[in-house]
Amino acid sequence: MPTVDDVLQSMDYGPAPESNTHVQNWLKAHEKGFGHFVGGGFTPLRGKQIEVFNPANGEKLAQVAHGTAADVDSAVAAAASAYKLWGKLSGFERAKHLYALARHIQKRERFLAVLETMDNGKTIRESRDIDIPLVARHFYHHAGWAQLLETEFKGYQSLGVCGQIIPWNFPLLMLAWKIAPALAAGNTVVLKPAEFTPLTALAFAELCTEAGLPPGVVNIITGDGETGAALVAHKGVAKIAFTGSTEVGKIIRAQTAGSGKKLSLELGGKSPFIVFEDADIDAAVEGVVDAVWFNQGQVCCAGTRLLVQEGIHDSFMRKLVKRMETLRVGDPLDKSNDMGPLVDPIQLNRVRAMVSRGEEEGGTLIQSKCVLPEKGNYFVPSLFVDVEPASTVMRDEIFGPVVSAMTFRTPDDAATLANHTRFGLAASIWSENINVALDAAARVQAGIVWINSTNLFDAAAGFGGYKESGFGREGGREGLYEYLVADWIAAAPLAKASKSLSFNVSSSGPKASAAGVDRTAKMYFGGKQARPDTGYSYGVENRQGQRIGEAGLGERKDIRNAVEAAVKASAWSSVSAHNRAQVIYFIAENLSARATEFANRLREMGSSASAAKREVQTALQRIFYYAGWADKYDGHIHSTNTKRQTTLAFNEPFGVMGLACPNEAPLLAMVSLAFPALAMGNRIIVIPSQTQPLIATDFYQILDTSDVPAGAFNIITGEGNKLAKILAEHDEVAAVWYHGDAAGSALVEKAASGNVKSTWVNNGKFVDWHNLSQGQGPEYLRRATQVKNIWIPYGE
Amino acid sequence: MLEMLRKGAEAGHSAFARNLGIPLALELFEGHQVNTSAAERRAASLITRRTMKKEYQAAWLVKAVQCIDLTTLAGDDTPGRVHRLCAKAMRPLRDDIVEGLKLSAMPKVGAVCVYPSMVSHAVKALKGSGIPVASVATGFPAGLTPLALRLGEIKYAVEEGAAEIDIVIFRSLVLRGEWAALFDEVAAMREACGPAHMKAILATGDLKTLRNDYKASMVAMQAGADFIKTSTGKEDVNATLSVSLTMLRALRDYGAATGFDVGFKPAGGLKTAKDAMNWLILMKEELGRRWLEPDLFRIGASSMLADIERQLEYFITGRYAALSHQPIA
């Protein structure tokens, strides 16, 4: 130890280790290893096991069970059994349990922080000041929701057993994000922590017992991807919530397709960090530190694409490079360190390989000159300059302390570069000009936008991404819906197969009526009628099996053309909601004028006169309903936990949506699906009833006369499931709704895994489109939007 | 010329070129942005990012003692009170504490800071100690007396023997954006100081916005301030970490543009050993090791010293110390 006189010369900080005695004692008490936490107790440890290491020094901390399908089975059984009681508890009772969990976490906050640091490698400052306080906050916040659920989420119910799979970067925080809302909503859970970092989840299991949580409400199964796959595949699980890589997220989407399981995915990112020339440069430099060198850069929403306006690039970089030099990397239990080791040697090697790739591709690597400890998975804070949009380090998620920088010229340029990515998780925007900042926030395609800040989190705000960063939100009001189902959906019966109508491409019988001029139903996209690309049509029959006309046999290229038209019609998404309402009202007006004609068409297709009239009238009412909603489906201002800060949750349209309509109620069902999507600002490609498409093709004449912008509403007729699959596979389509049979539902969900589209399928269930609580409602609007949370700290 | 000075500044540890100021350069600050929330976040997180233990903590506390401008600026100051303060300045720690810390010598505070009419008493009391006497001047604390009188007050204090002059700026000039007038006034004050080092008090509690703090810092430095100082101790809000952070960033930007190293002095409201540590951490993180010496960093305080003494006693004995056991200033 140097003398006081020595330190007066050096003015070094010196070592400041956080004591880990309590955690060491706990680990020693569990030296024989941890079984799974099932039904309120730990199972005996047997079979395959996983060793858990301290990433700071490679020492073994513990061994845990490697969960098998049988382990998952018993955990799901325990959760299902507990659900019978838990799901029926009053909101107040559930609230008391969640409150008790929050209290117990606070009582053990330092223990949990130290354990997290030892298991994950994050610095004690972060686990102590960020992770664990947020964990407690999440349980407090959701204790409130548990109680308010009955009144605030009328018409919704819990799901049952939720399977939850969390990553290793924020182990206990991700557990809280998963478990708190699930329990608040009345579900029970089986949670699998990451194989690298299972220890805080196991400590939490002990807390559940201490806090008196009923056995089986929370079950923890440790294991690796194999264990996770067993959980995903389990038939007793009603919902899967996954946070992790986009790669695994896609696999889970494909694997759960058609299972009826609800799914939320919080995946990867390559988030832009945009610095405009009128920003507070010093603040933005600190922002980069908090964005990229927080948690060693192992953060899905890390702002790793640094976009700096050209005029300030040099001065910004000078300051940033200088700032890198004061980052301290070392023992994460040392209270004066800014960065610890990466979680595992595997991750370290991955980061090293990505960085080498970046250099090979011509990037200039600037690294902090800090000296790393000899042992442990450390990597120095790193910055790439001279990189292009096509560079691997600019494109792919590194998940390490590496940021790649580029310049931009104008706000337009910034928005283009920011959105030029597969991902859409977060964005950080730095400007002191409110116009510049809010404009960029509106234009960036991301679920979370931080203005003049970065990596702010709170239980009251939703977290989740656009595009291949996943779907669903965690936190806030919007996050609760991921753990609930609308009563009418839960109660929907399986649809009976339609007997009288068949889809018959080769139908060639005589027409039921040959009077009048022959009409040709076409496709409709880009505001124009068009013949099918293949040149084929198919015969359309009425319920009596008589031929009433032909419809175009849509194919791959028709979908392509329609999507292209919809992509171009982006103005529909940005016009004022009032304008959209005006157009939708005008559609209703024109349909009303031709109500008899449409009723006649329905009669021709086999409806009774009264049924036809009723369907047209209900369709009219429904269009009015969504015209009314167009400017009223407001977002929220979340009460996030910081003074002088507003967090705006916007309901934004997806962009381009595909809508596959069922065979029943061909006019009403189409209207019921098309208009909520349209009202929210989506441009849509409608696949009408395959057996009764002529009512839809009549409908484009209404569109033509109602000021609907070209490309906002497109109609492609043909074989429903085939076209739905093509739509679901299309990477420019952001969301797909499907109504049809169970097989088609599975097909769409599976195909949607390609770009992790949001999907809403009926799983072959029947919807009574005439019923006002089924055929319409805010649930449709919610499904037609994605929530963007914009965080705006303010103050002078 | 600037280049030469810059080299001089970089070469020496203790010897460096005094800030000569530059002609008023609006472009160095006019468009400058400061985001208040971000500055507050940085300030709040910075002090949670570093901590010192044991010998390190003791040394940092001794360093704080060396940087204190031990101050009395009260209406009831008397020669006797100033004499007592000077005695404390020369022996800020008890002998047994110095011994317990194994220090090679009794540390000395950075300066003793008094009103102009108390300067001669302080000079006399500190004779031979090497501790400079600092005097407030220019109509402290409001700074609203006529310029000629303000300049005359500086000259008086220097003639009485003050080696450092803590001037206050005319806040109206900042609030109205009259930068050239502010520059001229501060430059005139600097000239009046002659060989005495000038600390420019911005009274940030009156300036209200961090943007104003940055701009006023820049003008004061361009006009030749040797130190920039946050507060008189008489404003509603005294030194805060976010204000200090903003001023340090100005200081850094000025250094990058001119090569001059300018000192920093937070004052008012710094009362505890923890405050001392927080500001030392801020200095080291934002400006580096060089700014942890009394020629570039001072803490304006009166009661802080006693709290530091208690902490040091605890370090040596392991027992919590009583305030009454520390010699009173």
Radius of gyration of chain B: 19 Å
Helicity range of chain A: 40-55%
Overall pLDDT of chain A, averaged? 96
Number of helices of chain B: 14
Number of strands of chain A: 33
Walk across the major sheet of chain B and give the strand order: 7-6-5-4-3-2-1-8
Looking at the structure, what is the overall shape of chain B?
Answer: globular
Q: Which regions of chain B have little confidence, pLDDT < 50, spanning 5+ residues?
A: 1-14
Name the chain pair whose interface involves the most residues. A-B, 37 and 38 residues
Order of helices and strands of chain B: HHHEHHEHEHEHHEHHEHEHEH
Integer tally of domains of chain B: 2
Briefly characterize the structure.
The complex is a heterodimer of chains A (796) and B (329). Chain A is of the alpha/beta class and 796 residues long.
Question: Care to describe what's here?
Answer:
The complex is a heterodimer of chains A (796) and B (329). With 796 residues, chain A is of the alpha/beta class. Chain A contains 28 helices and 33 strands. The model of chain A has no long low-confidence stretch (mean pLDDT 96). In chain B, helix 2 packs across helix 12 and helix 3 runs antiparallel to helix 14. In chain B, strand 6, helix 12 and strand 7 form a beta-alpha-beta unit. An eight-stranded parallel β-sheet of chain B has the order 7-6-5-4-3-2-1-8. At the A-B interface, helix 1 and helix 11 of A face helix 2 and helix 3 of B.
Write the layout of secondary structure elements.
The complex is a heterodimer of chains A (796) and B (329).
Chain A: H1 4-10, H2 21-29, E1 37-38, E2 41-42, E3 49-53, E4 60-65, H3 69-86, H4 91-107, H5 109-120, H6 124-152, E5 156-158, E6 161-165, H7 171-184, E7 188-192, H8 199-210, E8 218-220, H9 225-233, E9 239-243, H10 246-256, E10 262-266, E11 272-275, H11 281-292, E12 305-309, H12 313-324, H13 345-360, E13 364-367, E14 382-385, H14 392-395, E15 402-408, H15 411-419, E16 423-424, E17 426-430, H16 434-443, E18 448-451, E19 466-467, E20 470-471, H17 476-480, E21 484-486, H18 487-491, E22 523-525, E23 528-530, E24 537-541, E25 547-552, H19 556-568, H20 571-574, H21 577-593, H22 595-604, H23 609-629, E26 636-638, E27 645-653, E28 656-660, H24 666-679, E29 683-687, H25 694-704, E30 713-715, H26 720-729, E31 735-738, H27 742-751, E32 758-761, H28 778-783, E33 785-793
Parallel strand pairs in A: 6-7, 6-9, 7-8, 9-10, 11-12, 11-17, 12-15, 14-15, 17-18, 18-33, 28-29, 28-31, 29-30, 31-32
Antiparallel strand pairs in A: 1-2, 3-4, 5-21, 10-20, 13-14, 16-19, 22-23, 24-25, 26-27, 27-33
Helix pairs in contact in A: 4-6, 5-6, 6-7, 10-27, 11-12, 21-23, 22-23, 23-24, 26-27
Chain B: H1 2-11, H2 36-49, H3 54-67, E1 68-71, H4 79-90, H5 95-100, E2 111-114, H6 119-125, E3 133-136, H7 147-160, E4 164-168, H8 171-175, H9 179-193, E5 197-201, H10 204-207, H11 210-222, E6 227-229, H12 241-258, E7 263-265, H13 273-286, E8 299-301, H14 304-317
Parallel strand pairs in B: 1-2, 1-8, 2-3, 3-4, 4-5, 5-6, 6-7
Helix pairs in contact in B: 2-12, 3-13, 3-14, 7-9, 9-11, 11-12, 12-13
